[in-house]
Amino acid sequence: MLGGVALWSLWWVWLAAALALGIFEVLAPGFIFLGFSIGAALVGLLLLTPLTPGFAALLAIFAVLSLIAWLVLRRFFRAPGGNVRRVETDIND
């Protein structure tokens, strides 16, 4: 607790977590952390409103928003036809 306020209820903590998860995504590309980063950022923006849900509700909102973000990212950035891209030729040939 920070001055009588729990850290999970502060908007800037969620936005800092989103930034940290975004940095982790750069270090381990492949949309592993990007959905979580977007979910944390949206929860941080939600906490800027007068609405202040409890800890369990925040975690549930974070989980749902992260899942939705991951599904949207998967839909827009997947390989055409759902296949893995195969490189048959070398650029040095």
UniProtKB/TrEMBL annotation:
This is NfeD-like C-terminal domain-containing protein. The chain crosses the membrane at residues 6-24, 31-49, 55-73. Keywords: Membrane, Transmembrane, Transmembrane helix. The keyword Membrane applies. It comes from Roseovarius gaetbuli.
